[in-house]
C-alpha cells in the first residue's frame, strides 16, 4: 500500500522515508526540510552565528557522507551571512585509494558550491601518516615475544589525534570562530556507550554537541549532525544527489567501537528512537550530574613549549606522541 507524506495534512505526495524516532512518514521535500531544520536548530541553540562581525566558519571534511551533507546543508541554509571554508586532512591511507579519493570528492563539492578548500598533509608536517602507523603496529605486534618495550595503540587513536590537532591549529592560525564536524547520532551514541563501559569520566562529563572554548589557541567545536542518524544522512545524500565516498576507511573494521555500533543498530530495530533518546536524556539529565560531582575541572592553562597549543603539562599530548612515534619508526627503519 502506498504511504503518503504525513507533514501536517497539507501534503499529498508519496512518502519516501519514515523518521525513525517520530515514526513520521515524509515525502522527499519534507524529509530534506526536516533534516535541515534539525541542523539549523542546533546551530541556533549554540549561538555560533553572530549578527554583527564576521562569521568565519571552518568545516572539517573527510569526503564521507556526513561532512559532505553538512557542507551542503550549511551552504543551503546560510547563503549570505556566513563565510564557509572546507579543510581536508590527508592522512595517507592508501588501501583502495581511500585518502586520495576522499580528498578529490571533498574538493569537488567545495568547488561546486564555491567554498574555499584547503588540504593539510600529515606526512609533510609530522613525518608519518596512518599507513606508517599501521606498518609499525604490525611490526611491534610481531616482535611482542622479543620485546615488550614498544607499545602502540590502534590506527584510529593516532588518526583522531592528528585530525583534532591540525583542524584546531588551522582554525586558530586562520582566525576561524568555530569548527563544524560531521559527527552523527549513530557514532555519538556508540561513543557514549563505549565510554560509559570504560567509565571514562573525562569523556562523560564533556558537553555533547557544542564545546565552547574559553581558552586561547583553542577553537570552539560544534557537531550540527549530533541528532541526525547515519541512515538519515545516507538518505539525505541520496535524495539530494550529494557525491560522497561510498566506501569505509580500510581501518574502520578494526575500530574498537564497531561491535557496539552494530549492537545499538540491532536494538534500534525493536526500540525505535533508542539512540536519540539515549543522547537527549544523557546530556539533559546525567552529564550535568557527572560534571557537578566530579572534581574541579582542570584547565588547559599552559602553553606547549614546542608548538604553542593549550596543554595541562609542559609539552602537549600531540607533541609527546608524535615524537615517540618518530623515534619508534626510526628504530624499526620505517
Ligand atoms: S576509521 Fe580510524 S583510521 Fe580510518 S579515518 Fe576513521 S579514525 Fe582514521
Ligand atoms: Zn510532503
Ligand atoms: Zn605541542
Mean pLDDT: 93
Report the β-strand fraction as a percent range.
5-15%
Bound molecules: iron/sulfur cluster, zinc ion
The count of domains is 1
Shape annotation: globular
Number of helices: 12
What is the rounded distance between the termini? Answer: 61 Å
User: SSE order in H/E notation?
Assistant: EEHEHEHEHHHEHHEEHHHEEH
Per CATH, the superfamily is: HUPs
CATH class bucket? Alpha Beta
Number of strand segments: 10
CATH topology: Rossmann fold
Query: Any idea what the CATH architecture is?
Result: 3-Layer(aba) Sandwich
- Output the radius of gyration: 21 Å
Helical fraction equals 40-55%
Description:
There is one protein chain. The chain has a single domain (29-296), classed as HUPs (Rossmann fold, 3-Layer(aba) Sandwich). It is globular, with a radius of gyration of 21 Å. The strands form three sheets. A six-stranded mixed sheet has the order 5-4-3-6-8-7, with helices on both faces. Strands 1-2 form a two-stranded antiparallel sheet. The protein is built from twelve helices and ten strands. Helix 1 (28-45) crosses helix 9 (230-239), helix 2 packs parallel to helix 3 (98-113) and helix 2 crosses helix 9. The chain starts with 16 loop residues before the first strand and ends with a helix. By secondary structure, the protein is of the alpha/beta class. Helix 3 (98-113) links the parallel strand 4 (83-90) and strand 5 (117-121). Residues 130, 155-156, 159-160, 249, 251-252, 255 line the site of iron/sulfur cluster (SF4).
Amino acid at each position: 500500500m502506498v504511504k503518503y507524506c504525513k507533514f501536517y495534512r497539507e501534503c499529498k505526495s508519496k512518502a519516501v522515508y519514515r523518521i525513525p524516532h517520530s515514526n513520521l512518514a515524509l515525502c522527499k521535500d519534507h524529509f530534506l526540510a526536516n533534516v535541515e531544520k534539525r541542523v539549523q536548530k542546533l546551530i541556533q541553540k549554540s549561538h555560533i552565528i553572530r549578527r554583527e562581525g564576521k562569521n568565519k566558519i571552518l568545516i572539517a571534511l573527510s569526503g564521507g557522507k556526513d561532512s559532505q551533507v553538512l557542507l551542503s546543508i550549511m551552504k543551503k541554509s546560510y547563503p549570505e551571512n556566513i563565510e564557509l571554508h572546507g579543510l581536508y586532512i590527508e592522512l595517507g591511507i592508501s588501501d583502495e585509494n581511500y585518502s586520495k579519493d576522499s580528498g578529490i570528492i571533498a574538493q569537488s563539492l567545495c568547488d561546486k558550491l564555491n567554498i574555499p578548500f584547503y588540504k593539510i598533509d600529515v606526512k609533510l608536517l609530522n613525518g608519518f601518516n596512518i599507513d606508517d602507523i599501521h606498518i609499525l603496529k604490525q611490526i611491534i605486534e610481531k616482535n611482542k615475544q622479543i620485546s615488550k618495550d614498544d607499545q602502540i595503540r590502534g590506527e584510529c587513536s593516532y588518526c583522531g589525534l592528528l585530525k583534532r590537532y591540525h583542524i584546531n591549529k588551522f582554525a586558530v592560525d586562520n582566525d576561524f570562530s568555530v569548527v563544524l564536524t560531521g559527527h552523527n547520532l549513530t557514532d555519538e551514541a556508540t561513543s557514549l556507550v563505549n565510554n560509559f563501559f570504560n567509565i571514562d569520566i573525562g569523556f562523560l562529563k564533556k558537553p555533547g554537541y557544542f564545546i565552547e572554548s574559553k581558552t586561547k589557541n583553542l577553537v570552539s567545536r560544534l557537531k550540527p549532525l549530533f541528532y541526525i542518524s547515519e541512515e538519515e544522512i545516507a538518505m539525505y545524500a541520496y535524495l539530494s544527489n550529494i557525491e560522497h565516498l561510498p566506501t569505509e576507511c580500510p581501518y574502520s573494521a578494526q575500530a574498537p567501537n564497531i561491535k557496539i555500533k552494530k549492537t545499538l543498530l540491532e536494538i534500534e530495530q525493536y526500540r525505535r528512537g533508542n539512540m536519540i533518546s539515549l543522547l537527549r536524556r544523557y546530556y539533559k539529565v546525567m552529564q550535568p550530574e557527572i560534571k557537578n560531582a566530579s572534581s574541579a575541572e582542570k584547565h588547559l592553562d599552559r602553553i606547549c613549549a614546542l608548538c604553542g597549543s593549550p596543554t595541562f603539562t609542559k609539552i602537549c599530548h600531540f607533541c609527546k606522541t608524535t615524537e615517540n612515534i618518530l623515534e619508534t619508526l626510526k628504530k624499526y627503519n620505517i
